[in-house]
Structures are given as C-alpha cells and as structure tokens.
Amino acid sequence: MVSCERCSKEAKMLLPYGPHNFCEEHFLYFFENRVRRTTRKHGMVKAGEKIAVGVSGGKDSATTLYLLHKMFSRVNEIEAVMIDEGIPGYRDKALAEGKALCKELCIAFTVYSYKKELAVSMEEVKEKIDLNSGLGSTCSFCGVFRRHLLNKGAVDVGADRIATGHNLDDEVQSICMNFFDNDFSRMARLGAVVGSNGIKGLVPRIKPLYESPEKEVIAFAALKELPHYSDECCPFSSQAKRNYFREMLNKMEANLPGTKFSVLRSFEQLKPLLEKTAEHGKARYCERCGNATTTSTCTVCLKLDQLILEKKVAKKQKEKTLTCATTKY
Ligand SMILES: [Zn+2]
Ligand SMILES: [Zn+2]
C-alpha cells in the first residue's frame, strides 16, 4: 500500500510528476491550494472586482465556479454567464447541470444563445458546412461566437474579469499547436491572464485552472460531487488536430512525468519576448456592429457574412441549375 504523504491513509491519487501521493482529503487540499496559488501568482482577482465565470456545464467550468466562489465570494461579486450554442442533445443537457450548480451555490446566471443574439444556431451552421466544406470547421465559427458572447455577457453584468475553465492540458495543447503551426502571434495571446490591451469593451480573461492537469480536474469535480455533464465531446467537432496533440502530450507525460508543466514553464519564459515582437492592433470598433476589434470589421461580422454569402451562393447555384435544366429541354 502506498501511503498519503500527509497522513497515514492509503494514497488514492498518485501524481508521478511530483511525485505526490495523496489520500482523497489531502488531494482536494493540494488541488485547491494550487488553484489559489495560480490566482495569486498571476494577480487574477483583485478585491472588490466583479468576476463573471463562463459556465458550460462541464467539469472544468464547474470546478472554476465552485473554487472562485469558495475563495473570493466574500470580497468579490461572482456571476455566471452561460452560452447556448444551439446543439440539441448536448448543450441543453450540460446547461441544465450548470444551472443546478449555480442554484446550489446561490450564484446568479444569464444564458446567451447564438440563435437569439446572432440569429443562427450551431445546428444551422453545421447544416451549411455539410453543404459546403469550404466554409471551414464548425469550431472556427463556434469559437468566435462563444468568445464574443462571453465578453458581451461580462460587459452586460458589469464584470471586471471573465474566468474560463481552461486547464493545464488545454493550454499546453494550444501552446504546442501554435508552435508547430509557426503561429507566434496567436501564441502570444495565450497565458493565465489575457489582457484587454486597453481596449474599452474587452474584458480581460483569467484561467484559474491554468496549472491544473485535466485528470485532476475530473477527480476534483467527481470527489466534490459538483453537478456537471461528463460527456464533454461536442457532437459537431472532430477536433482531429487537437486530439493528435492531446494524445502526443499524454503519451509523453506518461513516460516523462512533468512534461506538461515543463512546456508551460517554457512558454512563460518565452511570453515576454513574444509580446514584444507581436503586433498589437490599435484599439478600434467594428464599423458594422460596434464590437471592440483591431480591424475595421470584427471577426463575428466576418463569420456571419460567410454564412449569409453561403446562403446567396446556394440560391444562385440553384437558379443556375434550374436555368440549365430549362435550356436543356
Ligand atoms: Zn492524507
Ligand atoms: Zn462587427
């Protein structure tokens, strides 16, 4: 029997990167303490600030909401922002769990839906992509829309910061993907705190689970019995590329414990240099919708345009086929 390093009980959580061996109680203490240190080290939360938390209904955001509430609700107002992408049989189930957690913790929440805010659900986007693969991936639309609505939600509730559930694995996968893609300007925008660059209308984003491995977040949410939807895989996303990096990093972590933390530390050392060289677009506002952006038209409007154009192209093609059909006979 392996004993817990803090007491005489049997260790249930073996963390080879430490190495650390903990019983359930001391694992929970260790996990929580690390999140507290992460928030302090990166100056994520200041006394009196209002924090909006993006809640998806999954284990990451459930853990983020639970811990921010536990650590800061005495001096900080905390409110949840939920996004309904319009993915039937998936997000509706997850949001029900998110709402249950908010009710348990007595936290106010608002739901923003793609359909209501942007007039298009992800189910409709998926239909268009199925007709024309040239539009790109569902995730490229969903990511832009989600970031926009999370920010809008944070602005609407008057939040100073928006917390998301990104964990160590998510962050390290993104770092490696950008490195392998030679996309350093995108890499410069990663990190524990993503500032607003002084752009009014953009709320800085914080990632309290930035140093928490995914496996441990799963264990924490389960041991604490936090209401959450555990089928995390979105039915619309294949995420083939990210999955490839996830597998590679998990294999490396199993053989070389500590790899993920090591990649994160390397990135932290690189980040100041990346920021120096990265181009910072000037703060301006979208000509069409007024969103904070660095270009004349914001990415949300550009993505919505693609879908409208697609509609027009499809209509034209239909007309063309009809004309051809008539001339033929
Ligand atoms: Zn113990
Ligand atoms: Zn716009």
From TrEMBL:
GO terms for biological process: tRNA wobble position uridine thiolation. Keywords: ATP-binding, Metal-binding, Nucleotide-binding, Transferase, Zinc. Zn(2+) 2 binds at residues 286, 289, 298, 301. It comes from the Archaea. ATP binds at residues 54-56, 60, 83, 165, 170. Zn(2+) 1 binds at residues 4, 7, 23, 26. Signal peptide: none annotated. InterPro entries: Ncs6/Tuc1/Ctu1 (IPR000541), Rossmann-like_a/b/a_fold (IPR014729), TilS/TtcA_N (IPR011063), tRNA_thiolation_TtcA_Ctu1 (IPR035107). Pfam families: ATP_bind_3. Residues 50-247 form the tRNA(Ile)-lysidine/2-thiocytidine synthase N-terminal domain. Transmembrane segments: none annotated. GO terms for molecular function: ATP binding; metal ion binding; transferase activity; tRNA binding. One of its GO terms (cellular component) is cytosolic tRNA wobble base thiouridylase complex. PANTHER family: ATPASES OF THE PP SUPERFAMILY-RELATED, CYTOPLASMIC TRNA 2-THIOLATION PROTEIN 1. This is TIGR00269 family protein. It comes from Candidatus Iainarchaeum sp.
